[in-house]
């Protein structure tokens, strides 16, 4: 139940923040933010406050999935739960 509520709140925040953007605008925003994150050396999927700076980030044994596909998967998962 708690996870479902957190997902709901997250979706509400996302809508409030970028609800006025078209799907193509959202895709472009995600692409640009991903570019900034890579340039800053952020680890995908890890909150910067929890990242281990000593971790081996040179490994590239899997293709990084673009953030847009994760967001789409999250939206699909949320609609399946409801």
What do you see in this structure?
It is a single chain. This protein is mainly alpha-helical and 82 residues long. 60% of the residues lie in helices and 0% in strands. The chain has helices at 2-18, 23-39, 67-81.
Share in helix: 55-70%
Distance between the termini: 12 Å
The number of E-state strands comes to: 0
Query: For this entry, what is the oligomeric state of its chains?
Result: single chain
Low-confidence residue ranges:
none
Percent of residues in beta strands?
under 5%
Count of DSSP-assigned helices:
3
Looking at the structure, what is the overall shape?
A: flat
Give me the secondary-structure category.
mainly alpha
**Radius of gyration from CA coordinates:** 15 Å
Give average pLDDT, whole number: 76
Order of helices and strands: HHH
Reported for the largest beta sheet, the result is: none
Question: What is the compact description of this entry?
Answer:
This protein is mostly helical. The protein has a domain at 1-27 and 67-82.
Task: Write the topology of this structure.
Blueprint: H1 2-18, H2 23-39, H3 67-81
Observed structural traits:
82 residues; mainly alpha; flat
